[in-house]
Design goal:
Layout lengths: L9 H24 L1 H27 L3 H4 L2 H5 L3 H21 L3 H5 L6 H23 L4 E3 L5 E3 L2 H15 L8 E2 L6 E2 L5 H18 L4 H18 L5 H18 L2 H4 L11 H29 L13 H7 L4
Antiparallel strand pairs: 1-2, 3-4
C-alpha cells in the first residue's frame, strides 16, 4: 500500500479524504461561477491571511508565547508552503483577469501566455523542492523544518526531471478562451494527455516531499479538478486546479492539525523503494506525453507551444464547444 490507511483511525482517514475531495469541488464551484465568489476567495481571504501570517511571525520574533505555539508557526514553516500558496493565488487572479477581461491586460493577446508562465512557476517550485531533498540527503534522510523525515535519492531526481518535462508538455500557450457563460477560462489544448502526466508527476512530488500530507494534497486535491474537468467543466482543468490548490493551501496553512495531528492524519509508507517506483512511473508517463505531443506536432507541421496540436481530438472539441 502507498499509505498507512488501516488500524483504529482508518474510518476517519477515509471520511477525511471524502470530505476534502467534496469540499474542494464545492469551493471551486462557488469561486468560479461569479465575480464576487472569485474576489472573496482569491483577493479578500488571502489579504486577511497575509495580515494573519505577518502578525504571527512578528509576534514570534518578539517572543510572544501565543505566536511561538501557533499551529501555523509550528507546523507550516517551510518556504514551499508560502511559495505555493501565493503562486497559486496569483494564478487564480490572473485567470479571472482573462475570463472577465479586466483592464487592458485581461483583453490583451500577449497576456494569454500567463497561464503557461504561472503553471511553469508552480511546477518549478515543486521541482526545486524535490532536488532539495536529493542534495540534502542523498541515500539517507533529513528532517524538514516541520519535523518531517524525508528521504533523498534517485526518486527525487527522476521526479524532478519529470516535472521539467511536464512544463514542456503544455501546448498552445496562446490558445486561451472564455466560456459562453463567462464562468471559466478555457485552455482546450490542455487535454487528458497533459492532465494525466501532470497528476502522476505532482502526486509523486507530494509523495516524495510531503509524505504526511500526500493522502490529501496528493490524491484528493489532484482528483477534484480532474473529475470536474472530465464531467462538467471540460477545458477548465487549469482553472479548477489553481482554484482548488489555492483554497487548500489556505486551509492547510491555518489548520495544519487536520493533516498533522488528528484522527484524520495519514502517513505514507515512506519507503525508498516505493518512492522510486512511483517516481519511475511519473517520469515514464511524462516522457510518453512529450513524445506523443512532438509526434503530433511534426505530423501537423506546427510549433506545439505556439500553436494548438490537439485540434480534432474529443477533449479539444468538447472544450471549444463551450467557448464564446
Amino acid at each position: 500500500m502507498l499509505f498507512q490507511v488501516y488500524g483504529d483511525n482508518a474510518v476517519f482517514q477515509w471520511i477525511g479524504w471524502i470530505l476534502v475531495f467534496c469540499c474542494l469541488i464545492g469551493a471551486n464551484e462557488l469561486a468560479r461561477r461569479t465575480k464576487t465568489g472569485g474576489i472573496v476567495a482569491f483577493v479578500v481571504i488571502p489579504a486577511i491571511l497575509t495580515v494573519y501570517f505577518v502578525t504571527i511571525y512578528v509576534a514570534a520574533a518578539a517572543g510572544a508565547d501565543w505566536a511561538l505555539n501557533n499551529p501555523t508557526y509550528v507546523h507550516m514553516t517551510s518556504w514551499f508552503h508560502y511559495a505555493k500558496l501565493y503562486a497559486a493565488t496569483a494564478g487564480c487572479i490572473g485567470f479571472m483577469a482573462l475570463k472577465y477581461r479586466w483592464g487592458s491586460i485581461g483583453k490583451s493577446e500577449w497576456f494569454k501566455c500567463f497561464p503557461f508562465v504561472i503553471v511553469a512557476i508552480n511546477i518549478l517550485i515543486a521541482v526545486v523542492s524535490d532536488f532539495e531533498s536529493a542534495v540534502r540527503a542523498w541515500g539517507t534522510t533529513w528532517v524538514s523544518t516541520e519535523g518531517v523525515t524525508l528521504m533523498g535519492g534517485w526518486h527525487n531526481v527522476f521526479n524532478g526531471v519529470a516535472g521539467l518535462i511536464n512544463i514542456a508538455c503544455m501546448t498552445g500557450w496562446f490558445g486561451i478562451y472564455v466560456s459562453k457563460k463567462k464562468q471559466d477560462m478555457l485552455w482546450p489544448d490542455m487535454t487528458w494527455v497533459f492532465i494525466v502526466a501532470y497528476d502522476l508527476w505532482n502526486f509523486c512530488y507530494t509523495y516524495n516531499c510531503l509524505p504526511t500530507h500526500a493522502w490529501y494534497c496528493g490524491l484528493a486535491l489532484l482528483l477534484a479538478p480532474t473529475v470536474a474537468n472530465a464531467l462538467w467543466n471540460k477545458g477548465g482543468w487549469i482553472q479548477n486546479r489553481a482554484n482548488t490548490l489555492a483554497l487548500w493551501c489556505m486551509f492547510a496553512q491555518v489548520f495544519p492539525m487536520f493533516q498533522d495531528y488528528s484522527v484524520f492524519s495519514t502517513q505514507s509508507v515512506n519507503n525508498a523503494n516505493v518512492n522510486l517506483a512511483v517516481s519511475i512511473v511519473a517520469l515514464l508517463a511524462n516522457i510518453a506525453a512529450l513524445t506523443y505531443i512532438l509526434v503530433r506536432a511534426k505530423k501537423q507541421g506546427v510549433n506545439p507551444w505556439l500553436k494548438e496540436v490537439f485540434k480534432g481530438t474529443r477533449d479539444y472539441e468538447q472544450a471549444m464547444a463551450r467557448s464564446e
